Amino acid sequence: MAITIKKIVLGPVGTNCYIFQNEDSKEAVVFDPGDRGDKVYEYLSEKEYAPVAVILTHGHFDHITGVPELLRLSKDNGFSPLLYASEDEKELLKDPVLNCSGTAMSYDGGISLDADVWLKDDEILEIAGLKIKCIKTPGHTEGSMSFFMEDNRMLVCGDTVFEGSVGRTDLPTGSDAELQRSISGKIMKLPEFTYILPGHGPETTIRDEMQYNPWFR
User: Fold this and answer.
1) What is the distance between the alpha carbons of residues 198 and 19, in angstroms, rounded to a whole number?
2) Beta-bridge mates of residue 31
3) pLDDT level of residue 26 (50, 70, 90 thresholds)
4) Alpha-carbon span 86 to 143, nearest angstrom
5) 94 vs 81, 115, 178, 181, CA distance in Å?
6) What is the pLDDT of residue 106?
7) Nearest residue to 130 via CA among 57, 27, 48, 50
8) What is the band of 131 on the pLDDT scale with cuts at 50, 70, 90?
9) Do 139 and 180 meet the contact criterion of CB atoms below 8 Å apart?
10) What phi-psi label fits residue 180: left (phi over 0), alpha (psi between -120 and 50 degrees) or beta?
């Protein structure tokens, strides 16, 4: 089974949207369509991938703005992707003030989302040939979640970790202390050669972050 990954950088703050593609089944899993759901769907359509899941690392506007349009276009064209998010992100996803979509962008009324599947810590998903472990990593937001694919040596972590840095904690439900616990208690315990696919900026590895990131101490 061949899994390929496409990164599309979206929106005004350069959010990384990752598309995991099963080249055998032509199924695709989309992580964090942060803007331009039409652009994401256009790519999937051109490459003839079937969107089967949309997974959110957290609920900030720059990671969810493309969700409604991507789901609408998918359903209009005969697909039924499910929306997945952490059960601890329910309030933030539903509230345009908390998720900043009502204040940080020009979007009529803001964005309010309700996932089809609410995820628990340590839950295992099997989608499109991927085995995905859901790891609760609060700090950037209370319901931030990272997704570990051990077979592929990949961690999609949203804004929990960046190359040499971490996500901000001064927005609603953020916490420095929780973020430090998530890094030391969860992320640093993963294999050091795991590739980190962050919500913004370049990819990195746990090994590199343990050497250079001051939060990995």
Assistant:
1) 13
2) 18, 55
3) very high
4) 6
5) 19, 10, 22, 26
6) 53
7) 27
8) very high
9) yes
10) alpha
